[in-house]
Amino acid sequence: QVVLISGHLDSWDVGQGAMDDGGGAFISWEALSLIKDLGLRPKRTLRLVLWTGEEQGGVGAKQYYQLHKENISNFDIVMESDEGTFKPSGLGFSGSAEARDIVREIMALLQPINVTDVYDTADGTDIAYWMRDGVPGASLHDDINKYFWFHHSQGDTMTVQDPNQMNLCAAVWTVVSYVIADMEDMLPR
């Protein structure tokens, strides 16, 4: 069984793509790194996918889906971060009402950093195939007020990334992915 966390690497057309969507890739990698450093071993596999080709029609996501869809019942949740890594506010979630209630309980664990909101839908080109077929999905919600200042511009460099805000985003990604991966049962469909 798999909990998939992800970001994509493909917006370097004019800038470095550090914020869009390098930030999503960074926090996904950091989540796995933190879990490993803490010596935690969840019941399910945590899988990091660094998508490619999202800007070119989602070709990387389509290929991955085609290769793995026969095991769709083993995918517990698919998570994608694609709105930068500014100050997080919560998690977008698509799934059953029962699964949403579980995700709300998990997000309550993040009260100390004031990131507890659960929004009505998850967004993500790279996880859309899975969500369409009933796999629960999650996307990071953060403060995107400055997102389009840098989106697909020469300004999208590492200097846009605020380490403190990225750490908060990584904390959200880490807690949500680990708790879901370590629950007794998969999220209800």
What's a concise summary of this model?
The protein has 189 residues and is α/β, with parallel strands linked by helices.
Give a verbal description of the structure.
With 189 residues, the protein is an alpha/beta fold. Helix content is 35%, strand content 19%. It has a single domain, classed as 3-Layer(aba) Sandwich (Aminopeptidase). The chain has helices at residues 22-37, 59-68, 97-108, 128-132, 147-150, 163-182, and strands at 2-8, 45-51, 75-80, 88-94, 117-119, 137-142. A six-stranded mixed β-sheet has the order 2-1-3-6-4-5. It is globular. 41% of the residues are buried. Homodimer. The monomeric form is inactive while the homodimer is active. This is Carboxypeptidase Q. One of its GO terms (cellular component) is extracellular space.
Q: Into which percent range does the helicity of residues fall?
A: 25-40%
Give me the Rg, rounded. Answer: 15 Å
Number of DSSP-assigned strands: 6
Structural class: alpha/beta
What portion of residues belong to β-strands?
15-25%
Mean pLDDT, all residues: 94
What coarse outline follows from CA principal-axis ratios?
globular
Number of domains: 1
**What is the CATH fold-level name?**
Aminopeptidase
- The CATH class turns out to be Alpha Beta
Q: Say which CATH homologous superfamily is assigned.
A: Zn peptidases
Indicate the low-confidence ranges by residue numbers: none
Q: Given the structure, what is the number of helices?
A: 6
Major sheet description: 6 strands, mixed
Distance between the termini: 14 Å
Order of helices and strands: EHEHEEHEHEHH
Sheet with the most strands: spatial strand order: 2-1-3-6-4-5
CATH architecture: 3-Layer(aba) Sandwich
GO cellular component, one term: extracellular space
Protein name: Carboxypeptidase Q
Domain Peptidase M28: 1-173
GO molecular function, one term: carboxypeptidase activity
